[in-house]
Structure formats: structure tokens, C-alpha cells
Design a protein that fits this description.
The complex is a heterodimer of chains A (778) and B (335). Chain A is α+β, with helices and mostly antiparallel strands. Chain A is globular. The relative contact order of chain A is 0.14. Chain B is α+β, with helices and mostly antiparallel strands. Chain B folds into 2 domains: 1-59, 2-Layer Sandwich (Uridine Diphospho-n-acetylenolpyruvylglucosamine Reductase, domain 2); 60-121 and 162-333, 2-Layer Sandwich (Enolase-like, domain 1). Helix content of chain B is 32%, strand content 21%. Chain B contains 13 helices and 13 strands. Chain B has a 5-stranded antiparallel β-sheet with strand order 4-5-8-6-7. In chain B, strands 9, 10, 11, 12 and 13 form a 5-stranded antiparallel β-sheet that branches. In chain B, strands 1-3-2 form a 3-stranded parallel β-sheet, covered by helices on one side. In chain B, helix 11 runs antiparallel to helix 12. Classes of the chains: A alpha+beta (778), B alpha+beta (335). At the A-B interface, helix 3 and helix 19 of A face helix 8 and helix 13 of B.
């Protein structure tokens, strides 16, 4: 194995100093002269025609500098080319409580809020749809006239011979699973500062994971050329997918700035974060799995209904991931998938950490546990008996190149003392196991273009600082530090010599953004290529000057040295002076696009799921259950994650722990509660993300399968560990007290109800836990 | 989030504070630690013209100190922070139920800011009420604020917003009295009479009065006690139900005197009066404990004011009552 000096070493994230001292600037920290404060008017009705808007009183209020409504920005947009169904301010009708109707910019927040009260909107209230299963039976009052029965998209996939597969099984189970809706709950609420520049250009500082998509969308909606718009991503206080599509705030700020010809800042309240949402949808999973007597999975059939809310957003991608990533974890010969993305009068769902895979994984891993028990087999052993033989291509066309799942399972089984504990702990205590996986970047972009997915530039000037220009977005996951490490490793210099310029569309080349766990794999590979290119340029110059073979030169510890016995030893600063004399300028580039063979099959919807590589996770969870209160205490979690190679073990562990923490929240506590389309808990007081007190010791184990195509063998680390946590908790509860909870979150009340019935517990008779009178007038 | 416009008054003395309150009547509101009032102002639940910030009066030692004497018992100034109470060695030793309850209030940051007076005067809470201005407007308001109906019990004209403080039930089990200061000077009132069990009109405090101290009689010192709180998270959260017990157990394991109080299941913190009667003179027995727990359920009338269901909250009142009583008896055995 090659020796690395920086790769594989724990390096504190380069922006951590700015974050802990408070010197770092998040979007809401920004302030410029003449800045106005923007506020958005949200619909109070779940479904209502907007007959008219009278803004005269608001406009007349002293201090109000602009009022914008649908007619100011009529062009629809959306993150997917197939779903341009949103306008920044809805023009025809409001489709959820919180839908964006208008906005004002004023000299103070107080005046802006007063102005909102002065906007007179004439609504005609319509019957609304809240339950995804009832919504698909709607005969009228659809959210969109061209989406009959409120079905946004449906996909039907059939690989292998599913019926034959079930016929071969000794054990077949069918069960409905339910998962409540969850939000990313990033600490930083969304914030945008849009500056109308004196020369008629627009600069937008925004809390975005996807500056390039924001750049494009701003140009489309504001009807300005991209060349006249600059998007800058400041520090981000967490994204988790909630900032991975264009959020109305960003366009609203742009529209107001253009109209007022002034800078406008809008920062969401926490309630508005929940209303903008784009989180994980309410999901109903009808799962069917067949197992042979010796524990081989013969077939899987899943029917998934996702409650997408009012707009398309990433929705079709969410529902496709749910089906596609039934594959690539285990060796499953026959797969049938029916996925429905349904529209309801609630905020739009979208991408959230583990996008689309999490709720289906909960269902599958819970069922596999039950099947193992039915077959009299150890659940860990059943998982071992269904491993893929990588490299391979799955039945649904996913290419698996590196596969650390076997080692992940072995590690957690060993570290947890699984064999001594499973089924053997006293009543009330239990241990569970589950696995999960995720893409290391979507192999297919969501834009229709053949440009590289990412490009990195490097330049070195006379100061011998290495400046790396990347469009990739640091959102707390380690993107910036990863670039620094790769560039420093290849160029043989200290990380301190690397200066990073990131996520500023005026300075940095295109990167598609921080979503689908693509940055390390894709931007990392581009950075690797650019650094290698730069290294070659430097060594070529030195070789020319000293009449040596460049292959015999190396750069180590900030010095160019010779590998033969010539004892050449040139300080990096001097080497750069020489190289600049030789070349005139030192600039290099690197790009990355996934290989053709990683881009998946040809069936409808085949574009989602393929990735150049997949990460793997196995986890054990130990719980104790209070049988009188139903309260579940998680005692310990051991998570083994195959990230290919840990470029930075510190950040990998942080990502694994963060994923487990979020999974745990969804497993036990978090749920957006609805009443007739009204979110009952739009605050961090009532939306129950876990505190440190509910978070157990998490032991993360790094497994390195060294991916053949990843930079230094690296794959993703930020998402793949989330999904396993939830079923591992459910399985541990079963081991502890013998009840199976098929509904998330697993609240004490559900556990207690199941203990009293002495059997499994699904959601109450209604398909969804939300209350509502669907289709009834409100 | 913005707050409604108000004028901030910073009285220099207690008398000054009383006079400001008397001048402005219903237009004035008291601000102490601010952990309840400020979020509520941001949600536009109140629109006081004058906000009277009494926190600077904490410099007046009487208003923030914790004093004990065998003759006069315990006196806690209303501006004593919650942290100073739950970390007081004196209170932990002599009044464990109070230390235990206060330690569960919100999180450490709020306990550093929040005061015992504030916690005893909390606004009642309801999921239909503790929401933003936008949210409540989209609903059409509720009985407690700007609306014609109670969404918890739509037929009635009564507000069921739940009393959601943790210190009050503990102090009820200690027969606490409060000191109220108004234009006529100070008066004492049993804490149990302070609460009106009405979600809209929660406490018996005049518009020109301040709660200035809490007194616990010396005879309650050294009692065993504990507090069980139902919540989703082990920090930050308000109670969904809470049970406080204080008990005097003699050397033979006989309960000489006991108090049991509930919180978050009614618009007031309430003593379970029968518990006092039934437990006195009795040894621990599962039958007795069950009987008291059943009675606690009858006192608890939780409705859908919070994220948890009434059925579960009542259930937990029973479980927690049993546990609290068992623990009190057990810890007495150990002495």
C-alpha cells in the first residue's frame, strides 16, 4: 500500500477555527449598506384559488421598498427538468398552508411584517387532500389539473421472475410499514442575501448546497443571463438535503432585490424552514420478501406510496431511489417495485440524508429479521448468506465495484458480542442488527447536459501558495478539507500551503453540488487530476532546468527532491519560481464524469440509483425497554461503515456518528404531526430531534474496501449509515420484549400498546398518523 | 422573529416596580428570566405596552437569595435562578423533591436564566395556542387568543391549556406559601390557592402585584421526595405529565404524612388530596399504592393540549405515582 503523508490522517476541518470563534460568516451574518429585510406572505389555506391580491396598502406603508407577487416572476421552475411546477409566488392557487403568495422588502423586519398584514388576498377555499392514500382516490379538486388523482409519478419495475422467486421460498412474509414525515432540522435556518449591484448585476449569497443549480434557476426565473448573476455560498450550518434544491427564499430575495434595486436579505423562521420543508415523506411500504429454508432471499416485491406534498421537487427521484436501492446491498435475484409519488396539500417533500432509501430499508431489514426468526436462523447469518459477489452488476443494473459489507458485518458482530447477546439478554434488554448502503454520487446528473459533473482548477503564483478553485459546497461534511488534503498529498506540501476558493460561481468552475454524497468521489477525483497535472508541470520544469528525468523527481514535505542519488533538494518556493520561469503561468484543471458503464440500465427511471460506487454499513444497536412506560433507551450503537478509504478518519467518524444520530431521531422521536394540513409542531421545541441525553455511545468502525475508481479508493461516508440505525433499533426492541413495531417513530405509546396486545403493532386503522378531513371543505 | 413594540421599564426598587405595574395595569407585563415571556412575545401571544424588567432587582439580595432557618423554614426569593435552586446543597438535602423537579426544567441554559418566580407564574400551554402569529391566524385563533372556540374541547367555553411548570407540583407537596407584594405591601398565600385551574386565567395575581418569595415550612425539611416527568426528551421539554411526591416515613416504615401533586394534566398543578388522607399511618403495600395511583388518574384530566395522547398521559400518571411512592418508601428504608 502506498504511503501517504496527509491522506488517511485525522485533520481538523479547515473552517473549524472560523466556526468556533464566531469569525466565520453564515448567510444571516452578512450585512451590507442599504440592505432591506424581506418577508414572505404564506397562504393560510391548504388549498385555495387566489382571486386577487391588493398590495396598495402595503406599498403605501412608509419603509416598504418593494412588494412582489406571482406576476413579478411568472416563470415556473423546479429542480428536475420534468417537474417545473413551482412559481416563487404561486399565481393561480395556494396548495398548502404556508405556500408562498407574495413578499415584501422593507427597511426593517417590523415594517416588513406590518406590510404583510396589509396585503389583501382574496381566496376561494377549495377542498383539500391530506392523506396520500385517499388523495389518489380524489375524483376532483386535484392539486394540478394535469395530474389526475393527484399522482405525480408512478414507476413499475420488474427484474427477474418475482413470482417464481416467491414460489421457491420456504418462508414468505407480507407486511405494511409506515414511516412518519421528518425534516432535516439543520441548525441554520435558510438565509439569502441578494444584492442588486449598481451595474445591474445580481449577487446572491445563499445557504445552498447547490450553487450551480441556484445560479441556473435564478437566471431562468429572473430572466437574466447567467453571466450577470453571481452565486456565493457562505458557511453553511447543515444541509442534509434541505438546501439541495432551490428554495423559494432564494428566488424571492432575488425578485425583491431586482424590484427594489437594493440588497435584500431574507432569513427563514424555524416555522418557515418546516414549511419550505423538502424532507423525508410520509411513506407507506407494502413489503413482501421470500426466503429459502437455508436463508437465501429469493424475491422482493415492494409497493411504496410517498406523500410528496404539494409540488414535484425531487419527488420522482425520491420514489425511484426507494426502488433502485432495493438492489446493490444483498444478492437478490428477483425484484418487483411499484412506486407512487402522490400529491397532497402539504409542504413539498424532497431529498433528505439517505434520500429515498431510508424508509424502505426500515421495512426490508425489519422483515429480514422476522424471516430469519421464522427460519430459525441468526439474523446476522442470514445477512451473510445473501452477500453480493463484487464486482458485479445487480439484477436492476447497478454496478458494484467495491463491497465492504462482509467486513462491516463481521466487525459489528465481533465488537458487540452479538453471539453472546442475541436472544440471550434478560427480558427488557435486546440487541438488533441491520445493514444499509448508499450511492457515492448519482451517476446521472439531474440536468440534461454532458458537461463534466465537476471541475477543479489549481493555480500557483509567485507566492508559492497553491490555490484550489472548486465549485463543490462545504456544508459541514468536509468538502473543503477533502480538497486541501488531496491537493496537499499530491503536491507534497503542507495543508497550510493550500488556499481554497469554493462555491462562488464568479471564481470557481462548475460542480453540481453537495447532494447524493457525490463530492468526495467526484470533486475529489477532479481535484486529484488537477493536482497531478500541476505536479507534472512543476516537475517538468525542474527536470528541464537540471536536465533530469521528471520521473526521478518527487515533491515531499515542501521540497522537490530527486529519487536517484543526485541529492537534488529544492525548496517548494524556489521550485515554483523556476516553474514560473519555465511555463509563464502555473494553471491546471481536473474534471470528473462517471464512466458510461456506471450509468445504469435502460428502463424508465433507470437513471436514478446508478453510482460509480456504493458505501456499506452494518450496525448493532442495544436497547433496554421499560415495559411499563414503553420507553426505549438506546444503550450502545456500533456502526461499521465501508467508505472505501477514509481520507480523513476524523471527518468520516463524524459523518457516521451524525448519520446514526439522525437515524435514531427518526427511529424513536421525530415526526412532523399534521392536522388538516396544518403542521402542529413547527419548532425545535416540539419537533423532537434528540439531545445529547438520548444519544448513546456510538462506536464507529471504519472499513476500507479501497474502491478502484474513488480518489485514493474513497467512497461516500455521509449518508449510508443512517438507514441501518432505524431497523437495528426496531430489531433490538423485538429482541428485548418480543414486539414488532412497524410504524415510525417507535414512540413509547406504540411500544406499550404492542406490549399489551402482545403482538406486532402497525399504524392505527387510518393509513397515516395525520389527522384530516380529506376532500372536505375547510 | 420580531417582537411587538413595547417600552422597557427597569424599576430600581420593588416599590418602583409595583408602582409601574399599578400605573399601567393590563398594559404592563413582568419580565424576569424571560425564558417564557420572550418566546411568547415573539409568537405575538401578548402585546404589552410596557414590559417591566425586574431582573435587575436580583441585586436586592432578598429577592434572589435562598435562606433557611429551623425557626422560619425555607425562603427562596422569586428571582433566584432555577440553577441556583437545583444546585443548592441545602435544598438537595432538605427538600429533595424540589431539587429533583427544578433540575428537569428546560435545559441548563434556560435554568441559568429562568427564575423560580417565573416558573410559578408560567403561562399555561397548549398546542393550539403556543404557535406563531401566522399559524394561529391560519387556524382562526382559539378561545385563549383571538378565536371563538377551544380546539381541545370545541363544544365548551372553557380553556384547557395545561399548567406546564415543574416546580409548582414539588412546592405543593411541601405545603409552600408564596409572598405577593402589591401596593398594600406583602401578603402570604398558600401556593395551592394561587392556581385557578383555568387555562385563560391561571393565577391569582393582581395586575399591580408581584410574586416576591416562596416559603416552605420547616416541618417539611428532611422529607423524602421525588419527581417523575413524562417528556419525549430528557432535557429541554416541558412536561407532558408530572408527578411529585413528598413523604415522611418513620423508622418502622410507616408513612406519617405524604403529599402527591400532579402537573401538566390540568390547567393547574393539583394536589391529589385523597393521597394525603389514605397514606397517613400506613405501611407500604402494593394495594394501597395502586389505590392512590388510581386516584391520581381521577385527578388528572389531560386533554389534547400537547403532542402526546390523553390516554397515554393518564396511564403514565398511574405508573409514575406508583413509582414515586415506592421510591419514597424505599429511600426512607435506606436511612
Amino acid at each position: 500500500m502506498a504511503q501517504h503523508s496527509i491522506i488517511g490522517k485525522p485533520l481538523a476541518m479547515i473552517e473549524s477555527g472560523a466556526k468556533v470563534t464566531g469569525l466565520g460568516k453564515y448567510a444571516d451574518d452578512l450585512s451590507v449598506p442599504g440592505m432591506l429585510i424581506g418577508r414572505i406572505l404564506h397562504s393560510p389555506h391548504a388549498h385555495a384559488v387566489i382571486r386577487s391580491i391588493d398590495s396598495s396598502a402595503a406599498e403605501a406603508l412608509p419603509g416598504v421598498k418593494a412588494v412582489a407577487t406571482g406576476k413579478d416572476a411568472p416563470r415556473p421552475y423546479g429542480i428536475l427538468p420534468i417537474g417545473h411546477d413551482e412559481c416563487v409566488f404561486t399565481k393561480d392557487k395556494a396548495r398548502y398552508i404556508g405556500d408562498n403568495v407574495a413578499a415584501v422588502a422593507a427597511t426593517s423586519a417590523e415594517i416588513a411584517e406590518q406590510a404583510l398584514d396589509l396585503l389583501r388576498v382574496d381566496y376561494e377555499v377549495l377542498p383539500a387532500w391530506f392523506d396520500p392514500l385517499l388523495s389518489t382516490e380524489a375524483a376532483e379538486h386535484w392539486l394540478f389539473a394535469d395530474k389526475p388523482r393527484n399522482i405525480e409519478k408512478e414507476y413499475h419495475h420488474n427484474f427477474g421472475s418475482v413470482d417464481e422467486g416467491f414460489a421457491q421460498a420456504a418462508f414468505v412474509r407480507e407486511q405494511r410499514y409506515f414511516a412518519g414525515e421528518v425534516n432535516h432540522a439543520a441548525m441554520e435556518p435558510h438565509s439569502t442575501l441578494a444584492i442588486w449591484e449598481p451595474d445591474g448585476r445580481l449577487t446572491v449569497h445563499s445557504s445552498t448546497q447547490v450553487p450551480y443549480y441556484l445560479h441556473r434557476t435564478l437566471a431562468e426565473v429572473l430572466e437574466m443571463p447567467m453571466s450577470q448573476i453571481r452565486v456565493i455560498k457562505p458557511l453553511i450550518g447543515g444541509g442534509f438535503g434541505g438546501k439541495s434544491e432551490v428554495i423559494p427564499i432564494e428566488i424571492a430575495a432575488g425578485v425583491l432585490a431586482k424590484k427594489a434595486k437594493r440588497p435584500v436579505k431574507i432569513t427563514y423562521t424555524r416555522e418557515e424552514v418546516f414549511l419550505a420543508h423538502r424532507g423525508r415523506p410520509i411513506t407507506v411500504v407494502d413489503m413482501k420478501v421470500g426466503l429459502t429454508r437455508d436463508g437465501k432471499i429469493t424475491a422482493v416485491a415492494a409497493r411504496v406510496v410517498q406523500d410528496g406534498g404539494a409540488y414535484c421537487g425531487y419527488g420522482p427521484v425520491t420514489v425511484l431511489y426507494s426502488g433502485a436501492l432495493l438492489g446493490a446491498l444483498y444478492d437478490i435475484p428477483n425484484v418487483r417495485y411499484d412506486g407512487f409519488r402522490v400529491l397532497t396539500n402539504k409542504p413539498a417533500c424532497g431529498a433528505m440524508r439517505g434520500h429515498g432509501t431510508v424508509n424502505v430499508r426500515f421495512a426490508f431489514e425489519s422483515m429480514l429479521d422476522d424471516l430469519a426468526r421464522e427460519a430459525g436462523l441468526d439474523p446476522a447469518e442470514v445477512r451473510r448468506r445473501n452477500l453480493l459477489k463484487a464486482p458485479c452488476i445487480t439484477v436492476n443494473g447497478l454496478r458494484v465495484t467495491s463491497y465492504g459489507l462482509p467486513e462491516c458485518i463481521e466487525k459489528v458482530v465481533e465488537r458487540s458480542g452479538w453471539n453472546a447477546k442475541r436472544g440471550k439478554l434478560p427480558y427488557g434488554k435486546g440487541i438488533g442488527i441491520a445493514c444499509s448502503h448508499y450511492v457515492s454520487g448519482a451517476a446521472n446528473p439531474i440536468i440534461r447536459s454532458n458537461i463534466p459533473h465537476t471541475t477543479v482548477h489549481i493555480k500557483i503564483d509567485r507566492d508559492a501558495a497553491v490555490t484550489v478553485f472548486t465549485g463543490a459546497s462545504e456544508i459541514g461534511q468536509g468538502s473543503d478539507t477533502m480538497h486541501v488534503q488531496i491537493a496537499a498529498e499530491i503536491l507534497g506540501v503542507r495543508p497550510a500551503r493550500i488556499k481554497l476558493v469554493a462555491a462562488d460561481t464568479e471564481l470557481t468552475p462548475i460542480d453540481l453540488g453537495s447532494y447524493s454524497s457525490r463530492v468526495t468521489f467526484m470533486a475529489g477525483n477532479a481535484c486529484l487530476e488537477a493536482a497531478k497535472n500541476m505536479r507534472a508541470q512543476i516537475l517538468e520544469a525542474i527536470a528541464a532546468k537540471y536536465k533530469m528525468d521528471p520521473a526521478l523527481l518527487d515533491i515531499r514535505d515542501d521540497n522537490v527532491i530527486s529519487l536517484d542519488d543526485s541529492r537534488l533538494h529544492i525548496a517548494f518556493d524556489d521550485a515554483i519560481a523556476t516553474a514560473l520561469e519555465f511555463r509563464g503561468a502555473l494553471v491546471a484543471k481536473g474534471t470528473y464524469a462517471p464512466p458510461e458503464e456506471a450509468r445504469g440500465g435502460k428502463h424508465k427511471g433507470a437513471g436514478v440509483g446508478p453510482s460509480p460506487s456504493y458505501s456499506y454499513s452494518a450496525q448493532t444497536v442495544e436497547v433496554s425497554v421499560d415495559t411499563e412506560t414503553g420507553q426505549v433507551r438506546v444503550e450502545k450503537i456500533i456502526a461499521a461503515h465501508d467508505c472505501g478509504r477514509a481520507l480523513n478518519p476524523l471527518t468520516v467518524e463524524g459523518q457516521v456518528e451524525g448519520s446514526v444520530y439522525m437515524g435514531l431521531g427518526q427511529a424513536l422521536q421525530e415526526e412532523m404531526v399534521w392536522d388538516n394540513g396544518r403542521l402542529m409542531n413547527p419548532s425545535l421545541l416540539e419537533y423532537k430531534i434528540a439531545t445529547t441525553l438520548e444519544t448513546p455511545e456510538i462506536e464507529s468502525i471504519i472499513v476500507e474496501s479501497i474502491d478502484p475508481e474513488g480518489p485514493f479508493g474513497a467512497k461516500e461516508a455521509g449518508e449510508g449509515s443512517l438507514a441501518a440505525t432505524i431497523p437495528a433499533v426496531a430489531n433490538a426492541i423485538y429482541d428485548a420484549v418480543g414486539v414488532r413495531i412497524n410504524s415510525l417513530p417507535i414512540t413509547p405509546e406504540k411500544v406499550l400498546a404492542a406490549l399489551r396486545v402482545g403482538a406486532s403493532f402497525s399504524s392505527p386503522s387510518s393509513s397515516c398518523s395525520s389527522r384530516g378531513s380529506d376532500g372536505g371543505a375547510k | 422573529m420580531t417582537m411587538p413594540a413595547f417600552r422597557l421599564e427597569r424599576p430600581r426598587s420593588l416599590a418602583d416596580a409595583v408602582s409601574i405595574l399599578a400605573t399601567h395595569g393590563p398594559d404592563a407585563m413582568i419580565l424576569a428570566g424571560g425564558t417564557d415571556v420572550v418566546p411568547n412575545l415573539q409568537m405575538k401571544l401578548f402585546s404589552p405596552r410596557v414590559l417591566v424588567d425586574i431582573k435587575p432587582l436580583a441585586k436586592n439580595a432578598q429577592l434572589a437569595s435562598i435562606d433557611w432557618s429551623p425557626a422560619n423554614g425555607l425562603r427562596i426569593g422569586a428571582l433566584a435562578t432555577l440553577t441556583s435552586i437545583c444546585e443548592s446543597p441545602l435544598i438537595r438535602e432538605k427538600f429533595p423533591v424540589l431539587a429533583a423537579a427544578v433540575a428537569t426544567i428546560a435545559g441548563p441554559l434556560q435554568r441559568n436564566m429562568g427564575t423560580v418566580g417565573g416558573n410559578l407564574c408560567l403561562e399555561t400551554r397548549c398546542q393550539w395556542y403556543n404557535q406563531s402569529d401566522f399559524w394561529r391566524k391560519s387556524l382562526g385563533g382559539c378561545l385563549k387568543k383571538d378565536g371563538p372556540i377551544c380546539h381541545v374541547a370545541p363544544g365548551g367555553k372553557f380553556c384547557w391549556a395545561a399548567w406546564s411548570g415543574d416546580s409548582a407540583p414539588a412546592l405543593l407537596t411541601l405545603d409552600a406559601e408564596i409572598e405577593i407584594t402589591g401596593p398594600q405591601g406583602a401578603r402570604r398565600l398558600p401556593l395551592a390557592q394561587f392556581y385557578k385551574n383555568d387555562g385563560m386565567d391561571r393565577i391569582a395575581l393582581g395586575r399591580d402585584e408581584l410574586l416576591t418569595a416562596v416559603h416552605v415550612p420547616a416541618r417539611m425539611a428532611g422529607r423524602r421526595g421525588n419527581y417523575h416527568k413524562l417528556r419525549v426528551r430528557n432535557s429541554i421539554d416541558y412536561p407532558l405529565a408530572g408527578v411529585a411526591v413528598s413523604m415522611h416515613v418513620d423508622s418502622r416504615g410507616i408513612c406519617r404524612d405524604a403529599r402527591l401533586a400532579l402537573t401538566a394534566v390540568n390547567p393547574a398543578p393539583l394536589l391529589v388530596k385523597e393521597a394525603c388522607e389514605w397514606l397517613a399511618g400506613q405501611p407500604a403495600s402494593p394495594e394501597l399504592i395502586d389505590r392512590v395511583a388510581q386516584q391520581a388518574i381521577r385527578t388528572a384530566k389531560p386533554l389534547t393540549t400537547s403532542g402526546s395522547t390523553p390516554v397515554y398521559r393518564r396511564d403514565m400518571v398511574r405508573v409514575f405515582t406508583r413509582r414515586a411512592l415506592e421510591e419514597s418508601w424505599r429511600s426512607a428504608d435506606g436511612k
